[in-house]
Amino acid sequence: TQASSNVEALQGDRAELAPKPETKLYHRRWVMLFLFSAVSASNAFMWLQYGIISNIFMRFYNIDSLAIDWLAMIYLLTYIPLILPVLWLLENRGIRDVVLVGSAFNCIGAWIKIGSASPNLETSKYSHLRNWFLWIFNLFA
């Protein structure tokens, strides 16, 4: 009788442990998803914009294609050293703060890129530096 009561208790526990979850739709989540997608798309555009029309940038900055390719490749290389600090921030500060900081860097980098409309590659490199940092923030958010 002891064993049968334990079996009944276990079967009862299983029924209580797995209730059917109820999914609730919040309209605010769609807004957040749209904003996050917009930030990610903006960052991706800034990452790859030089590679898309590299021949124009090669003439404008008077550099070779390898320098243009390195502007895009540096995003992937900064992933390695910046992954741990961003994961630490994500764990300690939360996704909201990480996305806000990443979006701020994206905005600042875009304004600096506007300033690189003159044939000065150093300004463009500096704006890319800001956007590299953002890429890691948005990647883990």
Automatic annotation (TrEMBL):
Any GO CC annotation of this UniProt entry: plasma membrane
Record Gene3D superfamilies: MFS general substrate transporter like domains (1.20.1250.20)
GO MF: heme binding; heme transmembrane transporter activity
Topology within the bilayer: Multi-pass membrane protein
Biological process, per Gene Ontology: heme export
Chief localisation class: membrane
UniProt cross-references to InterPro entries, sorted A to Z: FLVCR1-2_SLC49-like (IPR049680), MFS_trans_sf (IPR036259)
SUPFAM superfamilies: MFS general substrate transporter
Subcellular localization, as worded in the UniProt entry: Cell membrane
Alphabetical UniProt keywords: Cell membrane, Membrane, Transmembrane, Transmembrane helix, Transport
TM regions (residue ranges): 30-50, 70-90
Protein name (record): Major facilitator superfamily (MFS) profile domain-containing protein
Organism: Seriola lalandi dorsalis
